[in-house]
Amino acid sequence: MITTDVRGAVRTVTLDRPDRRNALTSEGLDELQAAIDDATEPVLYLCGEGEAFCAGADLDTVRSLDEESAAAFAERGQTVAHALANYDGAVVAGVDGPARGGGVELALACDLRVATPAATFAENGVSLGLFGAWGGTARLPRVVGEGVALDIALSGRVLDAEEAYDHGLCSRVTERPRRVADSLAENDPTAMRRIKERIRDTGAVEDQQRRERAAFTELIGALDDGS
């Protein structure tokens, strides 16, 4: 269900189940977790094979869950999303075609969501009597704001790439998302790591500034060592 390819500083992780629009089973989540754990490159590029990015959780799997296995399945998806969000490098989701439910949640866990004009996004779990439980209810309002998050999640409506960009759900719209990942790979990996840490720092302002100074000083020291 998951394939990987490394070219230089970029590791591509592909959701490879096109006949099911790359929907993820428990086994697929395990494979995705393993692929992330194995990665050491400065840039990780997540994409889908075929005409979809990811349809989210496999519906056959969802229908087979009882309360106990549902909790385990949700935790497994949350763990994968957490691994993406905390990857020691830049993570780019290349969204081409539909991203639904868990597919949106995986994209939300990435640093950048780069969409093609054919990309569409929907948190459509509400139509099934469910909602995204792979961290989406936490990450979506942080990315688009509470009001827009409620509109997206309560309605289950489909956003095209232009509207997703307008709301900040995707970072860019381009025909070739992979080029964004390649361009990030030209940057200093340590600087990218420190930028991620500082932007996502949720501590008190004074503490953030102190940690920012320390990170900046570290990077200056690395420049001096290399001169």
UniProtKB/TrEMBL annotation:
Record-linked Pfam families: ECH_1 (PF00378)
Keyword Kinase tagged: no
GO molecular-function terms, A-Z: isomerase activity
Domain of life: Archaea
GO biological process: fatty acid beta-oxidation
Keywords attached to this entry: Isomerase
Coiled coil: none
Family, as annotated: Belongs to the enoyl-CoA hydratase/isomerase family.
Entry protein name: Enoyl-CoA hydratase/isomerase family protein
Biological source species: Halovenus carboxidivorans
